[in-house]
């Protein structure tokens, strides 16, 4: 994405040609659409191993080859069923995982990269999904969580996954967070600004009598009620209600709930924009995007229109123009107040690599307590080049990691 800057790690396309199921592919500059790869790539630990090493089980000390993306993505396409018994469709879709966006296609995030610092050696903490990586970011540990869903405390989550093939990923980290540390140190000038429920709010609309609200959701809602009893439907409503109890960060980090009146520390994005333009933002703010939920998140095709959502989190197969619009709105609100902007550090980063091609092999990691599961707590995940906007006016390269 940042090759046009001329200051980041280069790429020899031929060196990354890979093969899978009789298909060959090399990285491509320029994406064929703004929602590719259009089938959600795999993100689980073993799939990331395939992407990095070409195999699920990795011996200690092995170095990533970065040639397994096509192999793993072909598996994701086959699992989705979109190219069933259609080798031409499989061939057409497979190469999308090797496509990269140009600065012209994503002018906002690339524009920030051109004018501010880029930390191109910023790697995700573990080679896996969102929840364990966010836990490392805000707790310093994933409590052993490898993939989303392993720390779900509510038994209804597992039954929902069994019945409708839809895993809520409602993990709960009962440990202290960065915000707890701030509170304990007497620093309570912070807020978490959020946009959308953990699950799409249309689920709540449909299950609370809003089936007539959107006609095409009727069949999905009926199918869902056929699969789940009233108690499990109430759980889905809680996850998709639009109330604070449905907020991803509020649910994921249960350690936050020990902070007195923590509910006052959460606000919607409208309030962020108002405070940014007025120059009254707290000293530390976390901005939570709206989440993309791909159709592959459920095994029941009749429920896909109800369970899916296209967010603004730059997550495939969501349309990246939504992410561009979100980032632009944040930046424009921040620079609207010049005096406040000159004292503001904006960090734009991602929690994991979403299974799309990257050429930078992640380094080994030091386990939090001196020992850990080989290949998980001893291996970083993908590079997540992060933008740091704090008043620079020319592109800079920063090789620091986030803990430097």
TrEMBL record:
Single GO molecular function: phosphoric ester hydrolase activity
Top-level taxon of origin: Bacteria
One GO BP: phospholipid catabolic process
Leader sequence segment: none
InterPro entries for this protein: Alkaline_phosphatase_core_sf (IPR017850), Phosphoesterase (IPR007312)
Family annotation (Pfam families): Phosphoesterase (PF04185)
The keyword Ribosomal protein is annotated on this UniProt entry: no
Classification lineage: Bacteria, Pseudomonadati, Myxococcota, Polyangia, Polyangiales
Protein's organism: Sorangium cellulosum (Polyangium cellulosum)
UniProt entry keywords in alphabetical sequence: Hydrolase
Stored PANTHER family: NON-SPECIFIC PHOSPHOLIPASE C1, NON-SPECIFIC PHOSPHOLIPASE C4-RELATED
The protein's name: Phospholipase C
